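Honest question from a wet-lab person: if I give you the sequences of every part of a complex, can you actually get the arrangement of the whole thing, not just the pieces? Trying it with mine:
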Amino acid sequence: MSFIHPLALLGLAAAAIPALLHLLQRRIPPEIDFPPVRYLSAAERESARRLKLRHLLLLILRTALIVAIVLAAARPLVPLRGGGAHQPTAAVVILDNSPSSGAIVDGGLVLDRLRVAARSAVGRTTSADRVWLMLCDGVLRGGSREALLATIDSTRAGWQRLDLVQAVERAARIVNAQPLPGREVQVLSDLQSTALASGRADVPSGVRVLALAPGRAVANRGITAVTVSEGAAVIELSGSMVGVAGTPQPVPVTIRIGGGHRDRGEIAARGLATPGSDRSGGATRSVVTVSLPAQSLAPGWWVGEAALEPDELRADDRRPFAWRVAPPARVMATSSAGSFVAAALAVLQDGQRIVDGRDVVISGGEAPAGSHAIVQPPVDPALVGQANRALASRGVPWRWGQLDTPGVLTSPELTVLNGVPVVRRYRIEGAGSGEPGAGGVLATVNGEPWLVRSGGVVLLGSRLDTAWTALPAAPGFVPFVDALVNRIVMGEAEVAAAEGAPRVEFRTRGTDTVGATVFGPDPRESDLTPATPVLATAALGGKDRTAVLTADRFASELFSGTRRADASGLLLVLALLLAAAELGVATRTR
Amino acid sequence: MEFTEHRAYQPGDELRYLDWRILGRSDRLFVKQFEEETNLRAMILVDASRSMAWQGTPERLTKRAYADRLAAALALILLRQRDATGLVTFDEQVRQVIPARVKAGQWTRVVRGLLDTPDGQGTAAHAALQRLTALLTRRGMVVLLSDLLFDRELALAALRYLRHRGHQVIVFHLMDPAEVELSGPPEVRFKDPESALSVVVRPRELARAYADTVRREIAAWRKACRRHGIAYHHVQTDLPFGLALRLLT
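Yes, you can. This is the full assembly:
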């Protein structure tokens, strides 16, 4: 409680006046002869208890009357629930318009429900408040109330996932830095459990977090990812199966190919996925593989789209994908390449993955020949210097250095290499920075480059021989050589996935298309299972700072931490009532 | 007829009342006077204790003054009816006793008895009442004029004894109106003039309770008197004497 005129509280000393008067009035009363004192004594004995109570009541009433008047003069501001003005408040309204907000629940869009609450929250701000609006992109938008309301009105379901824990933590830091009496974070979200899985938000004390309780949980199924390999599209499905009981039913999936940037006509295929094969919490995962008429597709980059039948959340029912149909590489291995390489190439040739030719040359320390070369270090250490000079003359910024310590291979791009031991290797030293990503370091040992690419040349730190590394004896050796000759040496990157509106973007180098990025919603958005209030409260700051509230409670609790009302009117009414009561008691003779 | 006194003979007196023995001894003429026998012997008891010398306002009579006047008036009426009338005044002691007579000058003696009795100091009037019962040997009417501010049970015992002896007992309970309706300054110490008893009260607060107590006390006296065949009359000192006397009829 605070006061507009706190100095008036000094008047509370006047509350002692009734008691003082009572004491001061204890003067010697006049004495009068009165024969029937015995009747008087009897009457007083009978009325003593009533009189004592009456005197006490009068003392209390008079003291309370003075206190009420003094408090009214001090103009107290008392906290209020519902209605009333609030003190200046710094607030961040988090409107979660992530893809899951586009779900239809009970015939209405989730985002519409959130938008109404957001409008209510922003609409109750005053010019003394500082308010920001945060959408799923995580950007804090300031501005006038009208501007924020306009932003809310124009908000549509986005394509980015919002990590609520991080968003609340950031919002709490922002409002906590504001020198205003009130600090509040208002969370308007469907409170997906997947959005709260990243731990617990660190909310400073003094910051209130109010979250709108989620609506009813609905079932949903979405496409998580689509990958194409070996003439088949592998479609991963996930989602929340709330309320789906009994035997899982097959899910029809439609594949459409074509319509990409190189329009080649459309090819459609259908498959069935049986959901529920992998269940985790409220979410289910399943995979369906649809054969593609790969042989009929011409070499080049292809774009396709997988689609499910429409359900409550449309955003994840369709997902584009891209892949490259490449002609078999024309590969030749020199004699110094080693027997393991020759054996792997023979296998690939049998599988029609490569053909004889000189487009890609695999050598063992000789000068790189051809447009694309895969170079191993020479067997003889004396020839390392000569080989380095040959690389330099080709313009390769990498060179072999000294023999280095053994280790284990690590490669984020070539997973088949991970964990393979390397017992002998040359340290690959960079004469320059090299190309990052697809053109730079592709695999490391002990954090040092082991497989690098520069232009059309790929350099290995060890020979592909079991005396150097266990890789030739590993099951992933042939796929590694396949990737090496068909993709890596060509400078081709794997298809990347990114969050965004469903589309495919190609990466080019010069006139060549060297990669593609497929955009789509985060797979976690498909799981519409809402977090329990307990989980949400804990994740968003703990129960001492966070409250998950129904729509009505949410509306009444907004800014309630600082909402104040002038209680002087109420106190004056109370004083009037006290005065009336005092008058009644004082004039009542019995 | 009962001889009462002699007086000098006057012409016209009946000779049969002439006292021949005095004539023989002293050669002077005296006639005998006799008191007639009456049907009633009335004894008026007047409480002269200190509490009776109190008045609520100066304009009103004290209870004692009121009682004196009432007693005088009553005596006059009784004497005129040729009823033997006497007077006893008392506080904690019996102060004056005028035997009941009907002879001429009795009323003057009664009045003088009243005037000669000062306001008392005592409080234990019931003790005097008990002693009075021994004085009233011949049955008759006993009229008590008092404010009854003494122990009710003890006083009733004395009155009951009188009643038992065959007296007709009539009690006039005299009260000043200020004793019935409590009033006064906002806060006041009321002191009993007969004792050290005092109490500090706010009259306005206690007025109702006091009035109830007085009403209960009067009712208690009335009930107790009725139970013992005693006539009880509550009289406030602002009541005209005629109305007070009419209570006896």
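Two things worth pointing out. The mean pLDDT of chain B is 87. The CA atoms of residues 85 and 106 of chain B lie 8 Å apart.
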